[in-house]
Amino acid sequence: MNAASPSRAGWALVLPLVAFIAIAFLAPIATMLLRSVHDPEITDLMPRTRQALARWDGIGVPQMAAEAVTADLQEASATNQIGRLAQRLNREQNGLRRLIDVTARELEQNPDTQLARIDPGWSDPDLWRILARVTSPWTGRHLLNALDVTVTADGALVRQEEVRRLYVDLFLRTAWVAALVTLICALLGYPYAYAMAASGPSLRTLLLFLVLLPFWTSLLVRATAWIVLLQRRGVINEGLLAMGLISETGRLDLIYNMTGTIIVMVHVLLPFFVLPLYSVMAGLPTSYVRASASLGAHPLRTFARVYLPLTYPGVAAGGLLVFILSLGYYVTPALVGGRTGQLISNQIAFHMQRSLNWGLAAALGTLLLLAVLLLALTLPRLAERGGLRA
Amino acid sequence: MNRLARFGFYLLCGLIAAFLVLPLLVIVPLSFNPEPYFSFTPAMLQLDPAGWSLRWYREIAESAQWRLALRNSLSIAAVVTPLATLLGTMAALGLRRLPTRPRKMVAVIIASPLVVPVILFATGVYFFLAPLGLTQSFTGIILAHTALAAPYVVVTVGSTLTTFDERLLRAASILGSPPLSAFFKVTLPLIAPGIASGALFAFVTSFDEAVIALFLAGYDQRTIPLQMWSGVRDQLSPAVLAAATLMVLLVTIIMLAAMLIARSARSAGARR
Question: pTM to 2 decimals?
Fold first, then answer.
């Protein structure tokens, strides 16, 4: 730490963490981005077909490729990969599972049969175009699927059929929930932060403690607590029943739906709104408000014209934080959202863990990451331009 | 504000405060429920001692699964906390010495694990570690938790450093102290409270983390949050309430410790 080269010492101190984050964090994120456009699973299972079709001009039925498919299917049968291949191809084009199963079974009996004899499907040029596309390791189809768009055999982009359109709606719903949660946090957080800033030291410490306790408490604990309160046989329903406000059949569905997701998300994220806002409010000089009051302004007018604008930076910081955090929330909706209260993150986890459609999971993740980064980079700048910086 | 408006305002704030903490407090008495229900039994409401029981605490204390989970969580945090604290403190000290523009860039890189949704990190880590055979291993969880925890250390230590007076180091150097010994005798004692609260943050980050663990832990690496996860999702048992109560207690103790550290830092600052 030579005083003459402060920045060299600085780099030496900073680099270990930067290198660590590059390897342990940025590299995994880059892997996810790559996975959304690079999916070698089918290529690895059909290497000969891939080679044969890479040079194909896309017209008619390629004879050379038929031999390659025969060889690939025989190898897949021999190594017990045929089921995986059939399922994987079926995900790209409905009906391919049956075709592959039938063909592979026939090839096991009579290895020399021509493909077109086994099933007329193999004489369809469209099938070969589809095969040419899906055996390429580079693909835009996951990203397109994540936007509810699919590719037809001749390469045109069309919207998914109605029942399979899921993700655009889900992205919109996630954004809507995030906006709603942010709004509720603002309505509850503003008066609370004001009370903290305006009260004496002991009450302030108490209020701070009350906001920090849930902030530091595990998400799992908080979800558990809300389930206990809100479920059909939970504390609130039992209480209302005991007071005779609802009947046995009129128990309220407060959890395992979108209502539950929103209530618990507000609870989880409220401290993230209150704390930055409080730090702005605590730093404000009281003289402006006093000046406004002594010049005869009504307290409400003083609040609206003087105090509120001064606290905008805190509102913007807290609001942005809450909005961005809600866009990517996973734990809370997974635990209390039931079937209808799920957000985009839950769909990513679903494709990672259950459907094992990793390409689609990576594509949905890529879109979510883009949305978050775009907001994180542009909104503070917009706020700055709008004069929201103190 | 007239008195009525003031009363209404504080009532509103009281309700918001209740919304924040009451849910956490409700689970405490319910964890002493002798029956496998999640609501108050009549005997409990009459404060009849026979209506209360330590049944669920006994259950988690005797359960091999919960004990394994506790051991795993503590082992992971025991590596993550010192690693993140060391890397984070060094980076916070180094950041101040960089010229403005590279400093901003480095700060963005360091803060990125806090902005990117954890589910994306978990997904990426899974893709990244699967070919290396590091899923279902402690190594993967520890690396990922350290990346999540270290930025918090940078933030806490960094905010302590803003009040640190660089002239003290120059004074030490004029008085003939080599830089390293000046660091240990001057800088370190003054920023120790920031490092301590950064370490607490790192510990809590790792101890509470569920999403990474959900993706990377096999059965043998189950942590406390995972144990609670299956307790909430799969087999809702009041044993979860006992565990949750213990965790609220732990957090309260840690918070009081952090407040004491902050107070001692303030009085140390006042002495200076």
Answer: 0.89
